[in-house]
Amino acid sequence: MLGLEMVVLLGIAIVACGALASRYPIAPAILLVVAGVLIGFAPSLRAAHLPPEVILLVFLPALLFWESLTTSLREIRNNLRVVVLTSTVLVVATAGAVATTAHHVLGMSWGPAWVLGAALAPTDATAVGVLARHLPRRTVTTLRAESLINDGTALVIYGLAVGVTVGEEVLTGWHVTWLVVLSYGGGLIAGALVGLLSWQIRRRMNDPMLEGIAIFVTPFAAFLAAEAIEASGVLAVVACGLFLSQVAPRITGAATRHLVVPFWSLSTTMLSSALFVLIGLEAQSAFRALSSTTMARALLDTLLVAAVVIGVRWVWTYTTPYLIRAVDRRPVQRERRVSARQRTVTATAGFRGAVSLAAILAVPRTVDSGAPFPDRDLIVLIACGVIMLSLLQALLLPAIVRFARLPSDTSVDEEIQLAEVLTLDAAIEAIDDTATELGVGEIVTTRVRHELDKQRRLVEATGADGDPLVEHHDQYTSLSLALLARRREALVQLRDERRIDDIVLRQVQARLDIEEIRFSRPTLPE
Fold this sequence. Notes:
Blueprint: H1 2-23, H2 28-39, H3 52-69, H4 73-78, H5 80-104, H6 110-120, H7 125-128, H8 137-166, H9 173-202, H10 208-228, H11 233-251, H12 254-289, H13 295-317, H14 320-327, H15 331-334, H16 343-348, H17 354-361, H18 376-392, H19 397-404, H20 411-438, H21 442-460, H22 468-496, H23 502-520
């Protein structure tokens, strides 16, 4: 029954925290972490722990796949240098700084110190996603790309540190080089091959349900394929998702998207929310299980490590851009420079989350000799505390965004309008030839041309206050939605009077829903 109780509590916590976050200016992730801490006070629920394998094999592939599918590959290419540096050099620098602090200040041996540093080095793609509504596209994409790729670097360091500590690995230059090459190269190849296979299979499907199942299986297949050759499953999922984001629009039909997009949106929201609750639960559990040092000393250690993790990112943000500017003075790079004030957002957005939690919970309890893993309880406590403290930075984000004075980003709205205009122009140009091919009569062709012309003029009128065409469209939409509500009421009444069956109600209701979504969806940029 414990599992069922946790499912109910998780659902209640997610709904309650979401409602509070929509009412008050607090990031949902922070409220969910607090909810996890509160759940941990219930003695009967303290035994509820999610195995780290579940996070690595179920949560991460799904979350990273959806983030990869919904990010901008064009922006990643445009900011590739920044993404590569932050996902490799910054990760190593953060892990090294934390390890050095843990060794010289906290008194850990080098092996456990590097385990702690590697676990806390990568940022979290899920936590970064909450910023998308407040930041320009370039900033959001860079942060997402960094958090998608840096997991591979961190997990290589983590695997080496754990292996050396338990006695399974021998640290040599060639061995480290091979592991890095295998992790990155193998992960990218595995992800590309699985993505290619998924593309070839899905292009031959015409059943939306079967194609939806194929999409669901894809990230897990990519992860397992990479893990089978001891490469990075995280990078495999990311590579697979980015590849499919480019080819899927050519093969995926509207019915499949109508089925898949809501499913993935709901599923990933549930998974990411559950992870934040789990962070709070594990943090409290780590406090209770602490035995190697005093609570006061552990809290001070946590604050120190959190300061190092956050401080390294701030130092990186305000040093490397100037070094790059000194080397690269090309005009195209000068145009992409941002001010020191604007970089405060990037410096603050170094949230830690799912990968850090999974890595730290996966630390073995014993080494090869049978002795306990050194300082494991302290490592788990510090990691959970740092994750929570890094998420608290979200409280400062609204103020920091205002301080940064980020330029208004209208590029998305402009490109939406461009796409609407050009696609409508293509349809208008092709209407005569298409009508001839299909044998459509002149009356129908004229009607369709009139509707397309109206949509074309409506798109061009975007942003024009008081435009009669826009006002007419708004009134038309309002009236149509009101009449759809009356039709739905009449439909339910027919069912209640037993004049139609529930099956008929659902089928007609589905058609009305499609009409309502079509009218409710903002056809013009907000």
